[in-house]
Design a protein that fits this description.
- By secondary structure, this protein is α/β, with parallel strands linked by helices.
- It is built from 17 helices and 9 strands.
- Strands 1, 2, 3, 4, 5, 6, 7, 8 and 9 form a 9-stranded mixed sheet that branches.
- The longest helix has 22 residues.
- The N terminus is likely disordered.
């Protein structure tokens, strides 16, 4: 979920086994580097092209790629058996939560030296090339220290995606406040159009993170992310859940039934068909749904969440897909050099062709079409970018605060849980994580 094949010496593996799973070299004397990546909305071809370019510049390295839409399911059994990939491209927020689990287990390699390393073939360092604020948050530095354990591979503004042409056709204005949003929900209902849907409940991460900051400001957002005692019992937390519960009453009736990894595109299709108006998503949805049918004149557009108060400050969550190295990887030095290469101008150009935009200074100025429009949201002075996520803690059996926060939306829509139960469960999960991290 989150594209001219090229001849390339890449082995797409079903399993990482034997010497190919971690041997320091191959029969040819080359270093064998095993790379595992999620096949998300940007496709797989860009990785093949980048690896081809890397191998051409590094003839002593053979890169073997394992890529899948369910990469966690494929690499986890081998990792449990001690066979680790050397490099993994996989962000947080996935249902399998592999990245989060390794963070909690303190099983990732410290990548702070990579920030100070020169990009292969260039004069500057990786850190020099990255946009301000993209590193040093809880996403990259999950323990709240100066050490960086995941590096941002691609970044994208996330928010509410909708069909600009539908609004023009109906003469509707994009809501600037939540009261305007709910009034539009009533208007749309008369046209048999649902106000809201989501691909899966996990996509509510961008929604909730922005809403938490919208309601309580950045300090409140940080308090939630770091499990401050009693934070889910505050009036701000109640307001966040009040707004969300009210919005979920306007959800498309098919939302929960399709909110899974097999059918999620059907919820996205409902926006293309003008059956639902808004959905939380990221810029990758354009490529993901490129071949899908759509209403006449359909035009993708992106807006931040409505303001809590008229003229109030709004936040937009920046989705970051990460690259990391397992602490148990065999070829960590070669892996770090490969990761540094991923930020080269050559690699960035290949990724950008697939609409995978990296957080590299100046890259946005070269964008065109829909992407150029999407990334303009960062130029709006009333909107602030928000990067990060929940702080890492030692694992607590039975506690998954992301699941509690996001997935419970399905139960709110179905009526299986109440808002009060939701708030109590969040308070309980947050408190257990606070105690584990203290």
């Amino acid at each position: 979920m989150r594209r001219s094949l090229v001849l390339v010496s890449v082995v797409v593996l079903g399993l990482l086994t034997g010497c190919s799973a971690g041997g320091d070299g191959s029969a040819s004397g080359k270093t064998t580097l095993n790379v595992a990546a999620l096949e998300g909305g940007y496709g797989r071809d860009m990785y093949a092209e980048v690896i081809q370019a890397y191998e051409a510049a590094h003839p002593d390295v053979e890169v073997r790629l394992q890529i899948s839409k369910s990469i966690e399911d494929e690499i986890t059994p081998n990792m449990k058996a001690g066979r680790y990939p050397d490099v993994v491209v996989l962000g947080q927020g996935r249902k399998a939560a592999l990245t989060e689990t390794l963070i909690k287990d303190k099983a990732l390699e410290d990548l702070t030296p990579v920030l100070k390393a020169k990009v292969p073939g260039e004069n500057g360092t990786v850190g020099d090339k990255l946009v301000a604020g993209i590193v040093g948050n809880l996403n990259t530095n999950p323990y709240g220290t100066e050490q960086t354990y995941t590096l941002p591979m691609y970044y994208a503004p996330t928010g509410l995606f909708y069909n600009k042409a539908l609004f023009a056709e109906k003469g509707w204005k994009v809501p600037a406040t939540w009261e305007e949003m709910f009034a539009l929900g009533e208007t749309a209902k008369k046209e048999k159009i649902s106000l809201f849907t989501y691909p899966t409940a996990g996509y509510l991460d961008s929604f909730f993170f922005a809403l938490l900051a919208d309601v309580g400001g950045e300090q409140f957002y940080t308090d939630v992310m770091t499990y401050k005692q009693g934070v889910w019992q505050t009036p701000q937390a109640r307001q966040v859940l009040d707004i969300t519960t009210r919005l979920l009453r306007y959800a498309a009736p098919t939302t929960v039934g399709y909110a899974n990894e097999q059918d999620f595109t059907k919820n996205q299709q409902s926006v293309l068909d003008n059956k639902a108006m808004f959905m939380p998503n990221g810029t990758w949805v354009v490529g993901e749904m490129a071949d899908a049918p759509r209403a006449d004149g359909f035009q993708w557009a992106l807006t931040p969440l409505p303001a809590v108060t008229e003229g109030g400050k709004r936040y937009i969550t920046t989705s970051v897909e990460s690259v990391w190295i397992p602490a148990a990887a065999r070829n960590k030095d070669a892996a770090k050099e490969f990761v540094a290469y991923l930020y080269s101008d050559a690699a960035a150009g290949i990724f950008a062709k697939a609409n995978a935009i990296q957080p590299i200074k100046g890259i946005v100025s070269g964008l065109s079409g829909e992407n150029a429009e999407f990334y303009k949201v960062y130029e709006d002075t009333s909107v602030s970018a928000l990067v990060g996520g929940f702080a890492g803690t030692p694992p607590v059996e039975g506690v998954d605060i992301k699941g509690t926060l996001f997935d419970t939306a399905n139960s709110i829509i179905s009526g299986d849980k109440t808002q009060e139960q939701w708030q109590a469960a969040l308070n309980d999960a947050s408190e257990k994580l606070r105690q584990a991290g203290s």
